[in-house]
Design a protein that fits this description.
Two copies of one chain form a homodimer. Chain A has twelve helices and four strands; from the N terminus they run E-H-E-H-E-E-H-H-H-H-H-H-H-H-H-H. By secondary structure, chain A is an alpha+beta fold. Chain A has a four-stranded mixed beta sheet, covered by helices on one side.
Chain lengths: ~250, ~250
């Protein structure tokens, strides 16, 4: 049984899958894809995942993409503690969370981060270098978004909508955790994993929303998550972004 | 066992769930929500689904929303022919399709339809009537999108991106069905159900993409889908939109 996981830093969608695979106790080979070097667009990686995105799971030669889909697969295909509630209805409530992360939480967070970071990143690169990297992005939609972010071209309407979404996510998480230790069915599930992968950055990146006064239950849950051995192991995976930040 | 389904016309997300429940043979009570009369925003319905969207499933008093989540639940919670492949990996491939419909196919199709239809709809209503209906939409994001669509305010970049997505979906479906009767694992699954719910309108609304010359396999699959008794039963549900169109 060979399990290969291609992933970036323990953040966002890579962290989602790293948490699941560690919590489940699945032995795997880690392949670190350095996103700051755009290795996700290297021809070698594109042969595995033509969309040029992380993470990718390869299990006995079968390739699976999309972190939410991979996490359900990890839970279904391997022994170890179940990461879904037993009841189909509770599974439904869990999937509403994982879907909400994919459709609302992650994109809002990502686009706002791009808006804040990419113009400076592109400006700091030698002339033509950013364009050269852009041209290597296989998905037109992603290529367009990066070009737009670099030019500071997101509209005020888009930015306002994403900020609104982050406030809504925050309230929803805080409310779900009031009187509960976990998001669904009083147990740790893929819902906690998915929300945590994005929420871990919120106190730093959007501290006016996530803080001890405004969201005490969400803040306590972040600590509860970090204390889980599987989650802690995922967070301990190589993080060159933080390393670079610490150096810089 | 009481199963109540609140749904609109047999199209889009309502058709998704109607197909699953009929294919599965689950006895249910149909509650038709007239979207052209904005009944999804009636206080009575908002008590069941505060987001004011269709469909909603209520099973023995437990409320479930989000058509993709509902369809997995229908398959898991009731007897009848399984609507998922048996193998977890094939289930993953199936979920990549249902996710792609939610994140790419349906929004692209919906926004282009809104862009084409809503300005005329809003313009044809008595002064203030459209604004009055807008004010009843509970989700700010939806409210903003409707207002924007009515004012013809989608950007050329957005329209171009949605058109690009529809072409990409079309190619992906045609390719998946070349040499195969169904989208995943050579059997009818929730992937076919999800794609069909949107694709059924493509030959009429985007005939330059979906037609006998360009997408022969996708066109044959549409007919194969319509011939299934469960799908046919779903399509035979009340459709006041078509009725209104036939009258008009």
């Amino acid at each position: 049984m060979a399990v290969d996981l291609y992933h970036g830093e323990p953040g966002s969608n890579s962290l989602k899958v790293l948490q699941a695979i560690h919590e489940k106790g699945v032995p795997f080979t880690s392949h670190y894809i350095n996103l700051t070097k755009f290795e996700q667009h290297d021809p070698e990686y594109l042969r595995i995942n033509p969309a040029g995105q992380v993470p990718t799971l390869v299990h006995d030669g079968r390739v699976l993409v999309e972190s939410t889909v991979i996490n359900e697969y990890i839970d279904d295909a391997f022994p170890g503690p179940p990461l879904k509630p037993a009841d189909p209805y509770d599974q439904g409530l869990m999937r509403i969370w994982t879907k909400y992360v994919d459709e609302v939480f992650r994109p809002s967070l990502s686009f706002l981060a791009w808006h804040a970071v990419i113009p400076g990143l592109a400006g700091a690169m030698p002339e033509g270098a950013f364009e050269e990297r852009l041209a290597r992005i296989p998905l037109k939609e992603k290529r367009d978004k990066w070009a737009l972010a670099a030019s500071g071209g997101f509209t005020e309407r888009e930015l306002e909508s994403w900020r609104h979404n982050l406030a809504e996510v925050t309230d929803r998480v805080e409310q779900a955790l009031t009187g509960h230790n976990w998001l669904v069915a009083d147990r740790f599930t893929l819902a906690d994993i998915a929300v945590f992968a994005m929420a871990i950055s919120m106190p730093r990146s959007h501290g006016h929303l996530w803080n001890a006064e405004r969201t005490p239950h969400a803040m306590a849950w972040l600590e509860r998550m970090k204390a889980r051995p599987g989650v802690a192991a995922a967070l301990a995976m190589p993080n060159h972004t933080s390393f670079a930040r610490a150096e810089g």
